[in-house]
């Protein structure tokens, strides 16, 4: 079944709160799964039911949901195994109604049980899934048990190695959704028209839609589908004018509310055209790390704080890396007027030959696109980050590109390439993947991991725009010193000045998203007194302290914005041609 579009805009109840948990490194709770009358944790029993039972959720500790488990308890900071969640909830099943459990995300694999029955499972830590529970529900109190396994896997997506913390658990909201037996489960509204899908035993339904005061009625066919052109020419959404329209979709007694903007995005040669006009992307990369409190960010408040900081920097663009962030991020970006790059965690080395990995990556891409394809702010689907060129990788990513284009031909495809300088200091972009994507993107670290930015000549084998998707240097907030001393704020600020001078020489550069808005946790960063499990390339510390480089980039963006307002086009000011 299609994921349910816009759960928050429907009749649904959040199951957020304190859930009982059992930490189960040996997966003993799952031992007898599948055996009738097994006493596994999924049955939610206790010694009061059977003296041989050796667990009792009611007397077990609790954790907050939504929330990763690692940042909630010091004993779980480095835990990457299986953990069981339990809570109960009330429900009153009725004829003609259906119930689903909606998970914003669960990292990495989740198995879900209602009243001891397995209602479904999901693999992939950053995308939503909906499980129908109608048949498993009973009137009154219901038991909900979720087994989450955050173990990293060779054929996983991501796989074994990442430069971010493997936050495990029910990291985003869990909602109980009630809908009519046949209901509007998906819709797509954009400049290219309206498309609706009804799911249920009687999918031929009338769907009444109002958008911008215009009303349109669609009749779905026996397969539940219908489409029609937009009944009016909407005002365009853009960062300078993020116009959103209130939308209602009524079907079979249910009314869904949404807010949608309309814009076009395309490329022409080296130009990125937003609503037909060249645009330069003044961006920043963001990890989904909760500002100020740490751990995996989630919900609207975190989104507003992170995107608010990006706006203070002078951004019109954000790269949400390296995995799909929570749904409110793109919705808040719609409202604030920020263009968005979304990405699936095909990161570094993936088991390119593994059908399991391909199926998982394809599933995550599909769930992301179906979730966010009504968001005007989202302009890029990124398929991967820093993957080394090899044939199996190219085939894997070509397959993902096909999936993305089939699901959504209206947005730009990209991936963050890893290109290293030639011996003469030339950067030639010729990765065959450049032939598959619409926009080139490169991560480069001249002046930090290698070389110097001065004198680097950038070339491309493709007549396509370039976004510099990463550049950055570590600095510990408050560590002051000479601009040649690594990890000082002065070094990082000087790094940005030198980088900006290089970027301004690249004629086909049409944007950048430096690495990164704020310091974030990583198990790979172990320099004592400096990193202490944090990647320190943020322009802000994990506590929101501004580093000197924040103002260097902000000044550059103010200059670019001024130039663009002054009709200076979209190329970097100093770039030839
Ligand atoms: C890489 C990678 C990031 C990483 C960064 C760094 O380019 O894409 O995930 O955090 O470099 O080394 O800081």
List keywords for this structure.
6 helices; alpha/beta; six-stranded antiparallel sheet; eight-stranded parallel beta barrel; 32 strands; binds alpha-D-glucopyranuronic acid; 577 residues; globular
Textual characterization of the structure:
- With 577 residues, the chain is of the alpha/beta class.
- The termini are far apart.
- The protein has an eight-stranded parallel barrel, surrounded by five helices.
- Helix 1 (299-312) crosses helix 2 (327-336), helix 3 (355-372) packs parallel to helix 4 and helix 5 (489-503) packs parallel to helix 6.
- It has helices at 299-312, 327-336, 355-372, 391-407, 489-503, 548-565, and strands at residues 12-14, 17-23, 62-65, 82-91, 97-103, 109-114, 117-123, 129-132, 140-149, 174-180, 183-190, 193-199, 206-211, 214-219, 225-228, 245-251, 254-260, 265-268, 271-274, 277-278, 281-286, 317-320, 339-343, 378-385, 412-418, 426-429, 440-443, 457-460, 466-470, 509-512, 520-521, 534-535.
- Bound molecules: alpha-D-glucopyranuronic acid (GCU).
- Residues 163, 322, 385-386, 443, 470, 515, 535, 537 line the site of alpha-D-glucopyranuronic acid.
């Amino acid at each position: 079944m299609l994921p349910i579009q816009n759960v928050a805009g429907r009749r649904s109840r959040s199951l957020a709160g304190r859930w009982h948990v059992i930490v189960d490194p040996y997966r003993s709770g799952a031992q007898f799964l599948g055996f009738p009358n097994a006493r596994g944790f999924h049955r939610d029993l206790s010694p009061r039911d059977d003296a041989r039972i050796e667990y009792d959720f009611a007397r077990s500790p609790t954790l907050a949901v939504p929330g990763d488990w690692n940042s909630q308890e010091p004993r779980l900071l480095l835990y990457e195994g299986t953990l069981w969640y339990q809570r109960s909830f009330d429900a009153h099943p009725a004829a003609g109604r259906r119930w689903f459990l909606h998970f914003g995300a669960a990292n990495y694999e989740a198995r879900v049980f209602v009243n001891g029955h397995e209602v479904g499972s999901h693999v992939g830590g950053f995308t939503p899934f909906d499980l129908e529970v109608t048949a498993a529900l009973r009137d009154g109190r219901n038991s909900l048990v979720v087994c989450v396994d955050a173990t990293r896997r060779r054929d996983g997506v991501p796989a074994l190695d990442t430069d971010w913390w493997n936050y495990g658990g029910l990291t985003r909201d869990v909602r109980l959704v009630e809908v009519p037996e046949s209901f509007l489960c998906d819709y797509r509204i954009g400049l290219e028209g309206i498309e609706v899908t009804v799911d249920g035993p009687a999918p031929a339904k009338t769907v009444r839609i109002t958008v911008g005061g215009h009303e349109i009625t669609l009749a779905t066919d026996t397969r539940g589908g219908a489409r029609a052109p937009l009944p009016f020419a909407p005002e365009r959404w853009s960062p300078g004018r993020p116009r959103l329209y209130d939308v209602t979709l009524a079907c079979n007694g249910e009314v869904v509310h949404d807010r949608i903007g309309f814009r076009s995005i395309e490329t022409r040669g080296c130009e990125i055209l937003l609503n037909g006009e060249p645009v330069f992307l003044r961006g920043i990369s963001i990890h989904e790390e909760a500002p100020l409190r740490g751990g995996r960010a989630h919900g609207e408040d975190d989104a507003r704080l992170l995107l608010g900081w990006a706006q203070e920097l002078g951004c019109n663009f954000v790269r949400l890396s390296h995995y799909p962030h929570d749904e409110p991020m793109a919705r808040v970006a719609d409202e604030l007027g920020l263009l968005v790059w979304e990405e699936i965690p095909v990161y570094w080395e993936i088991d390119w030959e593994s059908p399991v990995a391909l199926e998982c990556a394809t599933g995550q891409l599909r769930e992301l696109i179906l979730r966010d394809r009504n968001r005007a702010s989202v302009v890029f689907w990124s398929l991967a980050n820093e993957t080394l060129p090899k044939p199996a990788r190219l085939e894997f990513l070509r397959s993902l590109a096909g999936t993305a284009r089939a699901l959504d031909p209206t947005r730009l495809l990209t991936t963050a390439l890893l290109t290293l300088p030639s011996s003469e200091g030339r950067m030639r972009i010729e990765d065959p993947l450049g032939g598959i994507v619409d926009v080139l993107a490169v991560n480069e670290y001249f002046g930090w991991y290698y070389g110097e930015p001065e004198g680097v000549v950038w070339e491309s084998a493709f007549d396509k725009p370039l976004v510099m998707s990463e550049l950055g240097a570590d600095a510990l907030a408050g560590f002051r010193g000479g601009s040649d001393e690594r990890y000082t704020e002065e070094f990082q600020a000087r790094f940005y000045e030198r980088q900006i001078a290089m970027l301004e020489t690249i004629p086909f550069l049409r944007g950048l998203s430096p690495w990164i808005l704020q310091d974030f946790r990583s198990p790979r960063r172990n320099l004592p007194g400096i990193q202490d499990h944090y990647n320190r390339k943020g322009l802000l510390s994990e506590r929101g302290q501004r580093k000197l480089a924040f103002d260097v980039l902000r000044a550059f963006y103010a200059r670019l914005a001024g130039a663009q307002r002054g009709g200076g086009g979209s190329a970097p000011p100093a770039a030839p041609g």
